[in-house]
Amino acid sequence: MKVLLTGGSGFIATHCLEALLKHGHDVVATVRSPAKGQALVDIFKGQNVSYTIVKDIAEPHAFDEAVKSDPPFDAVVHTASPFHYEVKDNKKDMLDPAISGTTGILESIHKSAKTVKRVVITSSFAAISNPSSPPKVYDETIWNQMTMDEALTTKDPQAAYRASKTFAEQAAWDFVKRESPNFALTVLNPPMVYGPVRHAVSSLEDLNTSSKRILNIILGRPRGTVGSPIHVDVRDLAEAHVLAITVPEAAGQRFFMTAGFATEGAMGDIIRERFPDYAKNLDPGLSYAVPPYGIDNKKSIRLLRLKYRPVEDTIIDTVKSLQALGA
Asked: Phi, psi (5° rounding) for residue 28?
């Protein structure tokens, strides 16, 4: 297949690119600048990778030209969306890029890429999570219950992020219901995503949010706002993106993508045992607290036939990659 991959230089997207190539697909990645595109080409030198520039995914018609190709695209993997907690304006920094970027690319595909039959969107556990009133068990049927008014006015950057993913995903499902496009939609909802750093980073300070969480643990830094104690390995998530555009049963489905719980205490134990040089840095107060809810990932295992890696492999490989970057 020929696949358009958005946000191609990101942490998750670079692993998706690698997985797509391993399965024999040709990939065109959208990036924000020629430098980011060239970095991708250099990482995957000699393979079927090219790039196209989309400077701002929130701009109207941002993807109109990117979805056009000769030969035409068969599938689109849409990973581009902001994931950070440095929010000054909820609407401008979080909500608009997520919602407009998602609806914008679907509109562009519907209008100018009629050959596309499968689209997969990277959503998030954030679109499922209800911190104030969690269910007994989280699965794909659960939605975050924040209102738009709450999203616009909250001072909690995590809440703003959850809202952005929720409204973006809802907008995608509404689009498909309203427009009945030629393509089938699949949405993946991962929690914290850990694993080896594959994308180009200029320094440890430029790491993606989830990788920086592990870095802060091994260096004994204050962790500030921390994420969910639920995790998935980025390589398993990347494989799921490929399966989502190829497995017939995945069409029209939403998947809660998680391998299970990964508390900071448990991750610290793995680091202490396998990387004793970091033991002295580890905060003795790392939490082992498991939240008062269960998780159900059976749908992803059943329909995608995915086998999740154990958390030990994920953390060990993450720390090794951080060491290679100078940690």
From this structure: -115, 125
